[in-house]
Amino acid sequence: PELSEEPPAEMVKMTKSKTFQAYLPNCHRTYSCIHCRAHLANHDELISKASFFSFSMQSFQGSQGRAYLFNSVVNVGCGPAEERVLLTGLHAVADIYCENCKTTLGWKYEHAFESSQKYKEGKFIIELAHMIKDNGWE
C-alpha cells in the first residue's frame, strides 16, 4: 500500500488553545488570572473580602492593594516559604504564581506564629489586581 501525505478527510484540524491544569465548573462564579484567564478559584472558596468591613470579616491587604483570602485555589504554583512580618504579625508565607503565565498573584500562609492568626494556615491570598470575575457575575 502507498502512503498518502494528505490526512484523511474525516480528521479535524486542531487549533492551539490554552490548557490549564484545572478547570472550574461553568455553573459557579469563579475568579481567573487577569493576565491569561486561567481559572484560580471558585467563589465558594472565598473566606474574606477586603472590600467589605464588618466585625466578623477581616480586611486583607496585599503588596499591590486589596486582596481576598481563599480556602483553596487551582492552577497556582508555590515558591519556597519564608518568614515575613505582615500587618497581622510574623508569618511563614510562600509566594504563589499563576502556573500558566507565571505572574505572582499573592501568597500562601504556611505558618502563623500568633495563635489568633492560626486560621490562615494553609489558606491563600490573591490580590485583586491579578484577578478577574468570571461566570455568572452581575
From TrEMBL:
InterPro entries: Yippee, Yippee/Mis18/Cereblon, Yippee_fam. The keyword Metal-binding applies. GO terms for molecular function: metal ion binding. Transmembrane segments: none annotated. It holds the Pfam family Yippee-Mis18. Residues 29-135 form the Yippee domain. Coiled coil: none annotated. The keyword Signal does not apply. It comes from the Eukaryota. Keywords: Metal-binding, Zinc. Belongs to the yippee family. This is Protein yippee-like. It comes from Formicarius rufipectus.
